[in-house]
Amino acid sequence: MRIAACQMVSGTNIQANLSTARALIDSAAQSGAELVVLPEYFALMPKSDQELLDMAEDFGKGPVQQAMSEAAKQAQIWLVAGTIPLKADDDKHFIDACIVYNPNGEVASRYDKIHLFQFERGEERYHEGQTTQAGKEVKSVNIETWEGVWKVGLSVCFDLRFPELFRKLDTPDIITLPAAFTTFTGRAHWDALLRARAIENQCYVLACAQGGVHESGRQTWGHSILIDPWGATVAELTQGEGVLLAEVYENRIKQARDILPALKSRTL
């Protein structure tokens, strides 16, 4: 199966971001991608989290969700729509939701980001828990293609640091990770953590990132990447907007698990 990650450098104009996302999705689909992933906060990289709170949509309706549903249907792809802010249980928080659309434009799954980023280094600080409501349920989705059915485990950005979440996905074929890693943490940890998740779960990991300097002043690491079940890099971008295209093979997953049956050897 051919898959794609659409790396972006999202700004503060929602319509402009949606136009960019749509162009990248269409480019990926025209190149034969059947599964396309967008980054975290693809529709808005705000100057403050209050902006994400203000744009939060009711689940199942709203301009961002409608645009993504139409994009998936018109391109005839499975779309992991990065994250979309949804209304939470109170008006002081939003949900950072990863919504998966099938080729009919229907919602196939929704994963709410469980682990909320907290970081402080000089003047650079983030505390997502102040405005984001954490999810509670691990999610995966089976996607049907011409080649067969693939089990896709869903995760978002800071989840990457918590291997127990990925164990609960119960041996997916592919893990997707929309992200907006900071440049500082990305340079230090991005590659090592992604590679570890692929090796220990013996599956493909497709990470789709924000990658550049944003209007808000935030700097994101980029380096969207596909890693295979043996921990090898299949394809990678660096900075800026673009489409990462690559192939995944079912027999590569089987080969890794047959050569080193680590998943069968688990005792905990």
UniProtKB/TrEMBL annotation:
Residues covered by the CN hydrolase domain: 1-250
Name of protein: Carbon-nitrogen hydrolase family protein
SUPFAM superfamilies: Carbon-nitrogen hydrolase
Keyword Hydrolase: yes
UniProt KW keywords: Hydrolase
Gene3D superfamilies, per database record: Carbon-nitrogen hydrolase
Example GO molecular function: hydrolase activity
